[in-house]
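Thanks for the sequence, V.! I ran PadR family transcriptional regulator right away. Repeating your input here for the record:
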Amino acid sequence: MANDSNTQMLKGILQGCLLFLLADQELYGYAISEALSKYGFNDIPKGTIYPLLMTMEKKGLLHSQSKPSPDGPNRKYYALTAAGITAKRAFENQWNSLASSVEQLIKEKSSHEN
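Predicted structure:
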């Protein structure tokens, strides 16, 4: 059960990260995976990213478009919608609040150990 909640939490965080990556530019799946790796998300399987992109598109946070690739078949590029931009702002606010609370708790509890 703990593993299940960890997976859900990771998917929520990953969705927020995807919103940030796609806010700057439209990207295709493999480029998204590479960008995530650049920020330390090395262990995210491709089988997690694509279903999440599809779910986000169904929710109206993203839209996709097939474009020609210089390396072979067309690629599906993803970009934020207006709802995606709103969701990105909401995620940023929630994350900042959560991170601040966790940092405060850790700082206070760690100081009691010393």
